């Protein structure tokens, strides 16, 4: 059996692509179908969910440590960019956004947050746009909170502050002087 490429310790924060930031609460050995398996037991507080991931499958499912500071800075820079609005059908865009969120890639998630953010002076979002925006923003805020050792609401406020400032700059360009 190949050596484990990834190793997480009890207490480590990890990112599981489909669920976001969780914490390793235990390493377990279990016998399943006659095979001895070593499992990471992950706890996702927000969803009140526990997940068991075989240690030898952690890498193939995309489980990873929290992003590096460089990746976090890149994601925060992405939020400051001009939103990219595609003129494709909403159902197709929604699928693309969901795929980016579930990729677990911080910069891709930041792109979704940036593209779906609406400042107070902009038109209302549809219900499904709002749902995807909130899912992406929450995922980004949870990783930011874990990295900066703060809580999710404070991290979310920091993200919204960046987005509001960027929107003010980008919307100023549209208004004739």
Automatic annotation (TrEMBL):
Protein name in UniProt: CarD family transcriptional regulator
Domain of life: Bacteria
Native organism taxonomy: Bacteria, Pseudomonadati, Pseudomonadota, Alphaproteobacteria, Sphingomonadales
Residue ranges of domain CarD-like/TRCF RNAP-interacting in the record: 7-117
InterPro entries per record: CarD-like/TRCF_RID (IPR003711), CarD-like/TRCF_RID_sf (IPR036101), CarD-like_C (IPR042215), CarD-like_regulator (IPR052531), CarD_C (IPR048792)
Signal peptide, first to last residue: none
Record organism: Sphingomonas rustica
SUPFAM superfamilies: CarD-like
């Amino acid at each position: 059996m190949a050596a484990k490429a990834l190793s997480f310790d009890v207490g480590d924060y990890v990112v599981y692509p489909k669920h976001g930031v969780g914490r390793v609460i235990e390493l377990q050995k279990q016998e399943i179908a006659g095979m001895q398996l070593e499992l990471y037991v992950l706890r996702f507080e927000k969803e009140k969910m526990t997940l068991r991931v075989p240690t030898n499958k952690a890498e193939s499912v995309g489980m990873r440590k929290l992003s590096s500071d460089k990746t976090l800075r890149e994601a925060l820079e992405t939020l400051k960019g001009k939103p990219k609005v595609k003129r494709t059908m909403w159902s197709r865009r929604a699928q693309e956004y969901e795929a980016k969120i579930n990729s677990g890639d911080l910069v891709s998630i930041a792109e979704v947050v940036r593209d779906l953010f609406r400042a107070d002076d902009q038109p209302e979002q549809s219900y499904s746009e709002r749902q995807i925006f909130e899912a992406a923003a929450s995922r980004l805020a949870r990783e930011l909170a874990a990295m900066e050792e703060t809580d999710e609401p404070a991290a979310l406020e920091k993200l919204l502050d960046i987005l509001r400032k960027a929107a003010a700059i980008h919307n100023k360009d549209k208004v004739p002087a």
